[in-house]
Amino acid sequence: MKKNVLVLITILFFILSGCSQETMEQYSTQELGGFSFGTLGADVDEKTGRFYYYGEEIRIHYHIEGRGHGVLSEMAWFAFVDGIPQPTRLEKETGEIFRETSYMHNFSLNFGERFEFYVVFIPVSGVQGEQTSFIAGGLLQPNFLPTSVEQPFFGFYHHLFAPLPNEIQINSEIYNTHAIYIHTNFFEIPQSLIDAEQLFLSSDEDVISLREFIPRIDFIPYGENLQINYEDVIIARNGNARFQLLVYGGQEVRNRITFFVNHQPVQVNNADFIEIQMINGQVALINVELELDNLADDLNALYAIMMAAGTDYLIQDNMFKTPTILLVNE
Fold it and tell me: Which end of the chain is more exposed for a tag (fewer CB within 10 A), N or C?
């Protein structure tokens, strides 16, 4: 079974990847707290390393533990199946409900404080007879929110930690359906992006194509036409927020992109997510319109999460997040 360990080695979020046979662990800075989380292994088929769906709820044995010395670690834990947010219920071994069904489960943990439970769900997506991905992630300090429009920056708050995905074998029909909205323009890689990416490369490396880069996803002002001028604040007027999303890099995979406001998925143009097929050497510019009729607060957190759909997770096996941006309700 694929497992991944992310270990912080300095306070600047430099991260190394490795492997573990028993658990997937994620670490953050001591100042902001830390945590580990992962499956406990006994639920999977030892030969295939997969979970199986036979038409009834899947139960995955799981743990979460606080790892921040001297601080109370806060995190939001969530899961995706087939590139789509997966609502889950958390139960104790006895079957008693530990957390009600939700897309996000918040935890505040002292150092060494540990919970073991079962993650219970029916997959929201998948094709009968095929494998699909199950990937969990965590956001660091999810309750942080800037206090003013003049200082809208989130910094390392809401930093994403995610291991490599597990696999689910779909052996029964999936009844949940999700609308797909696709409105994407592709452009040849502009020189401005090449120059920006060159900052991540050593002097003896050449930029050949965007496939050489880690996939990136970010907000840009509406109508800016690929200028490297990222948004600091997005304004929602009369419950409507319009902006553009810039996506590039990685493999030629089918990506699904979901938008979150205050850590809850929201619809985009009356659909649950955007699905795009990436093209090597080109960037995707996506016009986005969010309907936010129930936006109650003046200041809100907005971000998008992207991961490969179908069996493309075998090619590109991680999830990617925009920086969190301040969404102002007018």
Answer: C
Cα separation, 252 vs 177, in Å, equals 25
Residues of the chain with CATH 2.60.40.3880: 180-329
For CATH 2.60.40.2550, the residue range(s) in the chain are 5-170
Q: Which two tokens stand for residue 150?
A: 């003049």
Fold of 5-170: Immunoglobulin-like (2.60.40)
Which H or E run contains 192?
helix 191-198
- 101 and 64 Cβ atoms separated by less than 8 Å: no
**180-329 sits in which CATH class?**
mainly beta
Q: For each of the chain's 330 residues, which pLDDT tens digit applies?
A: 333 333 222 222 222 222 232 333 444 444 777 888 888 865 556 556 789 999 999 999 999 999 888 888 899 999 999 999 999 999 998 889 999 999 999 999 999 999 999 999 999 999 999 999 999 999 999 999 998 888 899 988 999 988 888 899 999 998 776 777 676 788 887 777 777 766 665 555 554 455 556 788 888 866 555 555 556 889 898 888 999 898 988 889 999 999 999 999 998 877 899 999 998 888 898 889 898 877 878 999 999 999 999 999 999 988 999 999 999 998
Query: Residue 244: which of 260, 274, 221 has the closest Cα?
Result: 221
* Residue 324 per-residue DSSP state: P
